[in-house]
Amino acid sequence: MAATLRRFHGLRLLKSTPALNLQQAKQLSSAGSWASNNKKLIGAVGAITGGVGALLFALEQSVQASGSEVHSPAQPWNHKGLFSSLDHQSVRRGYEVYKQVCSACHSMQYIAYRNLVGVTHTEAEAKAEAEQITVKDGPDDSGNFFDRPGKLSDYFPSPYPNEEAARAANNGAYPPDLSYIVSARKGGEDYIFSLLTGYHDAPAGVVLRDGQYFNPYFPGGAISMAQVLYNEVIEYEDGTPPTQSQFAKDVATFLKWTSEPEHDDRKRILIKVFGILGFLTVISYYIKRHKWSSLKSRKIVFTPKEK
Amino acid sequence: MKVIYNTLFKRTSTYAVAIIASTFFFERAVDVSANAIWESINKGKLWKDIKGKYE
């Protein structure tokens, strides 16, 4: 380290000087020794980086008028704030909705029962949930495969063995895996909510094929998933009124959690980051004032030579 | 200031010990207070708040 510093700055950085004068401060900058070609190169790289960034920002912000789908309005999610956690009661209700409604067609193969522990269920409850499914395991001592009740380490069961079977059962449409669906769709949980509550009769002029339904939030408008959420389609164990928008909100929150299981930790660590960076800012400011104090409080006095 | 310098910062050995010890306490303080802020902001929404209903 010291050798590297010496190569860049001579001995100036390492030498303890009572007060840095401006001449010396200028010599500490390594930019002075760059050739003018180097400066041009660095300038060009900076300009290109800034330009590309501005272009990406402009494209992201541009009005999205192409396409026929309706963009989902932003809902007031209570996990939207900078420091707001997911509502775990809502995540738990969302799991009920997924289990009783969505899982008939949609798989969720990246979430295991153990992931529920400490998030929506106690360990005993998660074990009881897992035991409701049957898992093919094996081979046992005699080389046979056998069925056993699920364990905490098992992943959620898929309704179809493979994509082809799923397509064959659903008019050729493939119900996507829901594990990361909130991250995988533009609009995230707003889109999920709007899609689930946005079914309409097709307007005049829109032709739907057999097994298709009209949903203005779905790109193209013709979706192969029928409306599944109606008032009182299931009952909540905690007694929350079973309305369609409540189901949609809870399942969207649940899918937000499955897509971003680190959501709560991320936001909690942000508080810590603010604390530590705030502390470091105060220290840096103090050290800067300390180091510059002698330079800023100096006086330059002109004393004429005596003849 | 002088006392701190003479007892802790003057020798590398005590300086290193002072750094390690203060890191421990600083980290604990930041961690505990950040968690307290987090839990007060999100009171009622976290698993630890609803856990009692299911045990």
UniProtKB/TrEMBL annotation, chain A:
Q: Where's the Cytochrome c domain?
A: 89-241
Residues annotated to bind heme c: 102, 105-106, 225
Q: Which GO terms describe its biological process?
A: mitochondrial electron transport, ubiquinol to cytochrome c
User: Where does it primarily localize?
Assistant: mitochondrion
Chain segments annotated as coiled-coil in the UniProt record: none
What is the cofactor note? Binds 1 heme c group covalently per subunit.
* InterPro entries linked: Cyt_c-like_dom, Cyt_c-like_dom_sf, Cyt_c1, Cyt_c1_TM_anchor_C
Q: Name one Pfam family in it.
A: Cytochrom_C1
Looking at the UniProt entry, the stretches that span the membrane are 269-287
Q: Which cofactor does it need?
A: heme c
Q: Where in the cell is it found?
A: Mitochondrion inner membrane
Could you say which protein family the record assigns here?
Answer: Belongs to the cytochrome c family.
The function of this protein is:
Electron carrier protein. The oxidized form of the cytochrome c heme group can accept an electron from the heme group of the cytochrome c1 subunit of cytochrome reductase. Cytochrome c then transfers this electron to the cytochrome oxidase complex, the final protein carrier in the mitochondrial electron-transport chain.
Self-association state and partner proteins as the record states = Component of the ubiquinol-cytochrome c oxidoreductase (cytochrome b-c1 complex, complex III, CIII), a multisubunit enzyme composed of 11 subunits. The complex is composed of 3 respiratory subunits cytochrome b, cytochrome c1 and Rieske protein UQCRFS1, 2 core protein subunits UQCRC1/QCR1 and UQCRC2/QCR2, and 6 low-molecular weight protein subunits UQCRH/QCR6, UQCRB/QCR7, UQCRQ/QCR8, UQCR10/QCR9, UQCR11/QCR10 and subunit 9, the cleavage product of Rieske protein UQCRFS1.
Its name, as the record gives it, is Cytochrome c1, heme protein, mitochondrial
From TrEMBL, chain B:
Entry's localization field: Mitochondrion inner membrane
Q: What Gene Ontology terms describe where this protein resides (cellular component)?
A: mitochondrial inner membrane; respiratory chain complex III
The record describes its quaternary structure and partners as:
Component of the ubiquinol-cytochrome c oxidoreductase (cytochrome b-c1 complex, complex III, CIII), a multisubunit enzyme composed of 3 respiratory subunits cytochrome b, cytochrome c1 and Rieske protein, 2 core protein subunits, and additional low-molecular weight protein subunits.
The species this protein belongs to is: Drosophila willistoni
Q: How does it sit in the membrane?
A: Single-pass membrane protein
Spell out the InterPro entries in the cross-references. Answer: QCR9 (IPR008027), QCR9_sf (IPR036656)
In terms of Gene3D superfamilies, this protein maps to:
Cytochrome b-c1 complex subunit 9
Q: What is this protein called?
A: Complex III subunit 9
Pfam hit, one: UCR_UQCRX_QCR9
> Which protein family is named in the record?
Belongs to the UQCR10/QCR9 family.
User: Predominant location of this chain?
Assistant: mitochondrion
Q: Which GO terms describe its biological process?
A: mitochondrial electron transport, ubiquinol to cytochrome c
What are the top taxonomic ranks of the organism? Answer: Eukaryota, Metazoa, Ecdysozoa, Arthropoda, Hexapoda
Provide this UniProt record's keywords sorted from A to Z.
Electron transport, Membrane, Mitochondrion, Mitochondrion inner membrane, Respiratory chain, Transmembrane, Transmembrane helix, Transport
Described by its record, this protein's role is as follows: Component of the ubiquinol-cytochrome c oxidoreductase, a multisubunit transmembrane complex that is part of the mitochondrial electron transport chain which drives oxidative phosphorylation. The complex plays an important role in the uptake of multiple carbon sources present in different host niches.
Report the domain of life of the source organism: Eukaryota
The protein's gene is named Dwil\GK21685
Question: Is Membrane included in the keywords of this UniProt record?
Answer: yes
